Amino acid sequence: MKILVCVKQVPDTEEIKVDPVTGSLIREGVPAILNPLDACALEAAVQFKETYGGNVTVISMGPPQAEQALRQCISVGADDAVLITDRAFKDADTLATSYALSMTAKQLAGFDVIFCGKHTLDGETGQVGPQIAEHLNYNQVTSAMDVKLDSGSLLVLRELEEGRQTVAASLPCVITVTKTNYTPRYPSMKSKMAANRKEIKILSASQIEGLDMDRIGMSGSRTKVTKSFVPQAGQAGMIICEETAEQSGRKLAKLLVDAKII
Amino acid sequence: MDKSLYKNIWVYVELTEGKAAKVSLELLGEARKIADASGEKLVAVIISDAAEKAIDEISNADVDEIIVVQGQEYKHYSTDAYTFALTQLCKKYNPSALFMGATDNGKDMAPRLSARLDTGSIADTTELYYNPETKDIEWTKPAFGGNLMATIVCEKSRPQIGTIRQGVFKAALPVKRDNINIIREKISTPLETIRTIFKNYTANESTDDIKIEDAEVIVAIGRGVKNQEQIAVFKELADLLGGAIAVTRPIVDCGWYSVKCQVGQSGKIVSPKLYIACGISGAVQHTAGMTSSDVIIAINSDKSAPIFGFADYAVVGDMFEVVPALIDEIKALKGI
Fold it and tell me: Which domain, by its residues, includes A260?
């Protein structure tokens, strides 16, 4: 089995703070991490490889420092890593991103399964996986919590809003992974050191065969962010702060009953 | 591209056991407003093996037109068959926009369809606005864990495709228009092109508890609760008001409640008539899911807690004293 995993380095949103004066996000000092669900996708891929054989390549599109995230992937079981990095990729939406990744996958050739995280922490769109599948004309299964190989095709357990669904999916296939059954493993000291020595393949836009420059970056995007803002709290309503908390509770009850809210 | 060649607002109506999903009805209500603002028709699209019940249901949802694709291959959702059918419809009718619920299957299909039609898709949106000058829809969605809202447009291509989260809009009141046009399209997807085959489905264990997305009253608890025994008093309040308990992420992380009860950016968006936030600080991760509630009560001993910025009634005090007194007084006033 030839397996590809698509990963992204993202800012840790738990650490993001809002500037109280300007109301904008403070990004300085926010650690860049491997997108958590991509780590689950990698774990799924590595377990798949361990069970059925094969090798795992990880790919990322991003700035040169995304190499760090790729080394982390190698330290927990990926065999090879490819970083596509170029100013021409900047400001890509999911369609342009998935196009660039799919063209690279074509060049690397022959992947049976492509694993992606269900969505990223920053954009939270979950669109890149299905769009890669479309560009490559691969099959797709989203929200997977368990993936097995069963007589030449995949048996995938999907986690849906109200239940769980099992589907049989033919190869080649893009799978997007939710957390449930895949807790990422930790690297050992030895695997970390080996990952640091590993050569990461770095490709610029011109090194990807047949890449249509009109379909990448901003010019290849079909959507555009026109503004972003920090959600604002409205005006606070009535403040209830009696002498004791018990009195406050009783006052609240009276107000709610009088206003016919309850 | 000439955008004027693309007309009408479409809502893809997702069916569960032959009935329209809640989010689809919510979208029809909101899409009606956009269609009125843009002077276009509101069209519902149904793909199913058995659509008749849904056609009746959707006929009462203030739509101008219903397009129906029926066939055995649509018995279960599959990316291939559904994307194929919708692609054919979009190419034939050229809608200006297509709304889908941000369900797992909606989010499976929307990006795939948009890539096939070479157009933009905006995921998981929570606000929609039709800009009469540009004639584009402005879609707003939370990003960065709800810390940031982004407004996105699809200005160069059509149809504009997007998924919208459940619980953001209220379903419209039933209205039946005169002369609804029901169009039946014969589109069959060749079976050999369907690469994913449905095997089985197990619904989550149902409990007697009210689902938070359906509850009219929600009592929400968060990090202020230190152990499971402390939950009882909040459950009592929820029961008294005929409501449900909802929780923030730390409570789910503790394993006390399932993620199905979680409100917020990584959980559900709710808009009950009454939302009582008990000991919740008000991180955006949580408030992203509850600000559209009709009445919000916040109880917190920290008077600088951000949650108070959203509250209609801000009770400053220890929730373990406020809530029992609240229960007691409600019972006394209501004679229970």
Answer: 232-262
